[in-house]
Amino acid sequence: MKVLAAMSGGVDSAVAAARAAEQGHDVTGIHLALSRNPQSYRTGARGCCTVEDSLDARRAADVIGIPFYVWDLSERFHEDVVEDFLEEYAEGRTPNPCLRCNERIKFAAVLDRALALGFDAVATGHYAQLRPGADGTVELHRSADLAKDQSYVLGVLTQDQVAHAMFPLGDAPKPLVREEAARRGLRVADKPDSHDICFISDGDTGGWLSEKLADRGVEVNRSGLLVDDDGEVLGTHEGSWRYTVGQRKGLRIGTPAADGRPRYVLDIEPVSGTVTVGPREALAVDGLTGTDPRWCGAAPQGELECTVQLRAHGEEHRARVRVEDDAVEVVLLDHATGIAPGQAVVVYDGTRVVGSATIDSTHRVAAAAASR
């Protein structure tokens, strides 16, 4: 097969490209230039989206012995990922930019161009597995190394996209991938993994949002109220976008709770700027509604007994899922905490990814029940 290997400059994508070439595929490596102004994005050898990363990717391609190109998708990335991130936070939601990048860049813009150029598949260094389905489709499954599993951020992929994907690292534990990189002579063998948002150079998400929203004419220093779950005013803040549901640190509340316990962000109201805080047990939810579903195959019919994952590195929760028109209703049999609108709910049948939806609202457990 003709395979386009997306090479971020990190160890995972380099080994994935090397494995694809070793399997006999006709592999071409590409690195995605995603910043319209490279100085505005993160710098340093962290494994994604920097000038250093493009050089690391090129050196890896040379060692593997495959052609290498850089594709400029900076305008598409800015519109589909960065602008989406800004708009979601301005609406009081908490988006996942890596998931959005997979959906709209790596497996939409890149895959569409790859197929148009005659490639059969796009290979990435994601930790996930592909297996043949009973009906001739291709199933997306969790990786063998559950500690590194990235099927959650791939849960937005459709069946057609999965059918043209390759994940050569799906059966490999991360330590062995680094050992393999060293044996192959890849200089990225010991390069740190990337964990930060690539387009926020200093890691200060609140400060970055304030700067970008100010550029849009938003009054970023307009004070909003910090209130408890009974409506009592506890203080003020300078931007609701600086908070996310479940946040504990950085609240700067001058009045301690009556019981002395820490408070957490429970709700964000972007129009008034009100941020509601309360005890941890008030974060518990027993259900949620998702919108904009994407299914890796046919949509579930009737009620599905399954598990769901609600954060990229979160635990699985037993659940019942029902699809109603364009909404996904999820009843959580295991209560979850700190779940924010804008995040994704990914549905699993065992290790198989069924599909995903964007969380639109959550159903909070009654305080008395949550505390039991």
Report on this model:
Strand 13 (303-309) and strand 14 form a beta hairpin. The protein folds into three domains: 2-190, Rossmann fold (3-Layer(aba) Sandwich); 222-279, Adenine nucleotide alpha hydrolases-like domains (SH3 type barrels, Roll), CATH 2.30.30.280; 284-370, Elongation Factor Tu (Ef-tu), domain 3 (Beta Barrel). Helices cover 25% and strands 30% of the residues. It starts with a strand and ends with a helix. It is built from eight helices and 17 strands. It is of the alpha/beta class. Mean pLDDT is 89; it is low at 42-47 and 367-372. It has a six-stranded antiparallel β-barrel with strand order 12-15-14-13-16-17.
Average pLDDT taken over every residue: 89
**H/I helix tally:** 8
Give the beta-strand count.
Answer: 17
Cα end-to-end separation: 56 Å
Low-confidence stretches: 42-47, 367-372
The helix fraction, in percent, is 25-40%
Strand order of the largest sheet: 12-15-14-13-16-17
Structural class: alpha/beta
Whole-number count of domains: 3
CATH top level of the largest domain is Alpha Beta
Kindly identify the CATH topology of the largest domain.
Answer: Rossmann fold
In CATH terms, the superfamily of the largest domain is HUPs
**CATH architecture label name of the largest domain:** 3-Layer(aba) Sandwich
GO molecular function: ATP binding; methyltransferase activity; tRNA binding; tRNA-uridine 2-sulfurtransferase activity
Binding site for ATP: 6-13, 32, 125
Family: Belongs to the MnmA/TRMU family.
Catalytic activity: S-sulfanyl-L-cysteinyl-[protein] + uridine(34) in tRNA + AH2 + ATP = 2-thiouridine(34) in tRNA + L-cysteinyl-[protein] + A + AMP + diphosphate + H(+)
